What does this fold into?
Amino acid sequence: MDFGIVFTSHVEQSWKHAVLAEQLGYSHAWFADSHMIYSDVYASMALAAEHTKTIKLATGVAVAGTRIAPVIAHSIATINRLAPGRVILGIGTGHTARRVMGMPAVSLREFRETLTVCRGLLHGEEVEYREGERKRQIRFLHLDKGYVDVTHPVPIHVAASHPKALEVVGELADGFTTFLYSPDPAQFSWTLDQVRKGAEKHGRVLQDFYTSAISMPCVMRQGETLDSSRVRALTGPYVMTMVHYLYEAVKRAEDIPPAYQEIFHAYQAHVEQMQTPADRRYQEVHDGHAIYTRPDEERFVTSRMIEESCLVGSREEIIRRIRAFAEAGLNQFIILPPWGHVEETMVEFAREIIAHY
It folds into this structure.
């Protein structure tokens, strides 16, 4: 099992955290791409590339539709010039990066086109690029001058959860990344089966296919409970990222995991009562996203929500559960610490889990 960490990209801090992660034995550092919430992902990665030597650097994840495909490919190929052979393009259809602007995730047709263009360009090929009805052949020029690097491979790891999007993962991706929406490895195994079916449908056999998933672990200390302030501070922001996603993307309580159904209607009512005008309410919904738990959202971080969303328990219990995910096909377990707790979380996880795994 590899162990990674995803940062809410901060141009002054994330490179320092990536240096620490490398020293602590993490294999991957992922950088969130949400331009209305965090710093620019590629500026943050460039600094990390210059200050690290071995850790792999990945967008976690770049979002189709916020940049055109040639720019996405160009940006990650530029980072690859700084850290050749240790760069990954993680990419998805868009959650906060688009929804915080009140825009939906891009269509699967547009997403597939983005992946196809990025894949071809990152292989040094000439590809067809389309804007509206206009189609043109494009390629990187001056590849021998060192502006970008497509000689060292840049794997494309696709983030997805919807069955149709999972099919696209199987069709076009080198790897798959997702959130662990459930502590049950069987759910992850089912998701991975959908990816394999997508590959089979398109005549592809998944070899050396890499999987990763994000969660928020918390090693319980003596005397702590799920209601302890430290536990809630560490897990609350992650719990609410799940709630924000389900509110925006799923909408119907009957379509979401049982643990979330208990608070879903109350959360919907909470959003309806926000002071922000309805036509701009998406801004308030994502305030604090993955950074901190807003005081008005604390009541939605229940003990059951923590248990069902995060990996909380003793060292032995968390290691046992991570191994169960490994048996289900997971190659990398990624932690998502909240702002203000990044260093303490990564140090404790390295000491308690990575060192004993």
The chain has a mean pLDDT of 95. The chain has 13 helices and 13 strands. Residues 2-217+313-356 form a domain with the TIM Barrel fold (CATH 3.20.20.30). The chain has one domain: 2-217+313-356.
